[in-house]
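lol ok so funny story. i was supposed to be doing the assay writeup but got distracted and ended up predicting the structure for this chain instead. priorities right. anyway since i did it might as well share w the group, maybe its usefull for someone
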Amino acid sequence: MNDQPQGFGKAFSHTGFRWKLGRYARAAGHEVVEKALWLYYAAQSPDTPRWARTAIYGALGYFIFPLDAIPDFAAVVGYTDDLGVLAAALATVSMYITDEIKDRTRQTMGRWFSPIPVRTDQPD
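and the output, tada:
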């Protein structure tokens, strides 16, 4: 069996992923970063099988690859293609996105973004 990454999986690196998020997290937005981190942390889990890691690294490779379908610097729509690729990968590997991964992501995002206030009042 070939262990070499295929397609955009070749573009993935831990350093490249951290650099992209560190530099563009706010521009990419909460939803894109959340999905990217879910996938990243799932790939780190020993419970995630190789086939799922391959799908994850392909999606994350697309996310960090500087040339994609819609350039990330394009106002408003720059990350919509990235979100689509991340969402497709999540649909494929969703059974490996555990509550622990979601909690870890929530903690990371709490450090990067201003905490989102929890609404305690109910609309009338």
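The longest helix spans residues 14-28. The radius of gyration is 15 Å.
back to the writeup now i swear
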